[in-house]
């Protein structure tokens, strides 16, 4: 897919550094019951989206996100890709929802692809699920919808007023039709935590010359600015999409996510700023950078990007075989403390081991992004990759989830044992202690294959009371008819 290829075009600059290591202590979090949220695919009969050489992994769920209803914390909504394709996207997106705090779940297809009831006939695939819930209980969801064969693609938005059971016909925030020059990617939506009916969507729009046959010789010419749209009427309409982070040639953003300071209304958009051209200074090095831009007027104007830290990911592979594992290697994940406005961001980084493999880095700012703490390791070090971190603030705790390969024994090339973990720090200065095993070890080799073994570029974590709600995907080890499932667990630090 154009999005994945272009985002890799930037020059990676590694900056190993010896930084403070954070070691887990003996304390452990409390875990609620583990519940399988996903069921058999509602798209099993769909034959759309086929492309030459592509494989569809029926019943495979990947890339979950989760939100808790602030008006009723018993209502939790998660979304994921359903029936992943090997070359991008899925048959469609599915929502799981609960009204009793996660004890039981129902699910429904979202109207983001032609495989789903009420979905747009133009788009036979969908990807990048995201959901956020406002203070009045309105749930907002967005998706990338596109064609398996053909250039048409869009960012679509839908809402639910009944806890996730039903979803409105989708609204197009942007559509690019006919030409292969544009691809919209990695969208997210954030409901304003204070202003009912208001939500903010962001994404990157990759622009390349490939739509012009005379430009083939300039394959590395591309750009990918951040785009923004806003609703103030509960998703009935959205503002005309606009660029909020412009990028020059051979520069782009990816992984845009907004967090909102409920005390001031300030919006912070975090992203990976990829610089393949321009000045090579101390603040903006070529390659990947954890960065943010902020708005103090509801998204009308935005600051220039500010770099938090270098993002020194080297990607993830099976330590025994070298086989690729596709992860959120270049996607930072932010969070904000609603009580104080303190910011946190996690990402995959190899700086703690001399650039050999990815681990989890975290940095924090207590002055609105003016200054940031030196990145420290958030995972327990075991000499193997740690990946797909998520972060949230709830009550007095900063919670972090991630996966790693610590259970892999030397010489094992027949399976890839994978573990999922929770760790935390008190709010304020980082002091990461303790870790909790979220569920039994699973075999990553059972995962769908999409540029490597793939359970998602991200996993879901949300604040739930004074604890957390986790929605993640794990494999059903060895079961090729039902490779993965989305699972829910409540966490008490």
TrEMBL record:
Residues 1-28 form the signal peptide. It comes from the Bacteria. Coiled coil: none annotated. Keywords: Signal. This is Exo-alpha-sialidase.
């Amino acid at each position: 897919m154009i999005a994945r290829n272009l985002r890799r075009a930037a020059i990676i600059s590694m900056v190993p550094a010896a930084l403070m290591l954070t070691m887990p202590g003996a304390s452990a979090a409390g875990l609620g019951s583990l519940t399988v949220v996903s069921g058999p695919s509602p798209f099993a009969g769909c034959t759309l989206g086929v492309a030459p050489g592509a494989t569809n992994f029926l019943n495979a769920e990947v890339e979950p996100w989760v939100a808790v209803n602030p008006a009723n914390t018993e209502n939790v909504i998660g979304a994921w890709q359903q029936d992943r394709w090997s070359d991008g996207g899925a048959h469609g997106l599915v929502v799981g929802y609960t009204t009793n705090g996660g004890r039981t779940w129902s699910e429904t297809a979202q109207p983001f692809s032609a495989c789903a009831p009420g979905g747009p006939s133009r788009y036979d695939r969908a990807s990048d699920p995201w959901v956020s819930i406002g203070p009045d209980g309105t749930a907002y969801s967005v998706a990338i919808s596109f064609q398996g064969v053909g250039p048409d693609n869009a960012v679509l938005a839908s809402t639910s007023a009944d806890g996730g059971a039903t979803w409105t016909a989708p609204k197009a925030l942007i559509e690019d039709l006919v030409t292969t020059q544009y691809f919209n990617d990695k969208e997210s939506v954030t409901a304003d935590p204070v202003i009912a009916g208001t939500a903010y969507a962001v994404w990157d729009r990759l622009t390349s010359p490939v739509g012009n046959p005379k430009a083939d010789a300039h394959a590395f010419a591309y750009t990918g600015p951040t785009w923004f749209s806003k609703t103030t009427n509960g998703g009935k309409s959205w503002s005309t999409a606009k660029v909020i982070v412009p990028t020059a040639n051979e520069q782009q953003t990816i992984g845009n996510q907004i967090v909102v300071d409920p005390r001031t209304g300030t919006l912070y958009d975090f992203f990976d700023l990829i610089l393949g051209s321009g000045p090579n200074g101390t603040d903006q090095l070529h390659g990947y950078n954890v960065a943010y831009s902020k708005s103090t007027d509801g998204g009308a104007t935005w600051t220039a990007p500010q770099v938090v830290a270098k993002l020194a990911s080297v990607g993830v592979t099976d330590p025994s075989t070298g086989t690729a594992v596709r992860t959120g290697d270049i996607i930072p994940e932010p969070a904000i403390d609603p009580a104080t406005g303190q910011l946190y961001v996690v990402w995959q980084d190899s700086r703690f081991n001399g650039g050999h493999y990815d681990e989890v880095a975290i940095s924090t700012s207590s002055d609105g992004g003016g200054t940031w703490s030196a990145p420290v390791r958030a995972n327990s070090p075991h000499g193997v990759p740690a990946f797909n971190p998520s972060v949230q603030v709830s009550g007095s705790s900063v919670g972090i989830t991630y996966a790693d390969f610590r259970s892999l024994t030397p010489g094992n090339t027949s399976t890839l044992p994978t573990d999922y973990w929770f760790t935390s720090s008190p709010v304020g200065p980082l002091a990461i202690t303790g870790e909790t095993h979220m569920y039994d070890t699973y075999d990553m080799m059972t995962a769908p294959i999409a540029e490597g073994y793939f359970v998602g570029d991200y996993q879901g974590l949300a604040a739930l009371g004074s604890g957390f709600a986790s929605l993640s995907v794990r494999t059903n080890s060895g079961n090729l008819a039902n490779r993965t499932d989305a699972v829910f667990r409540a966490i008490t630090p």
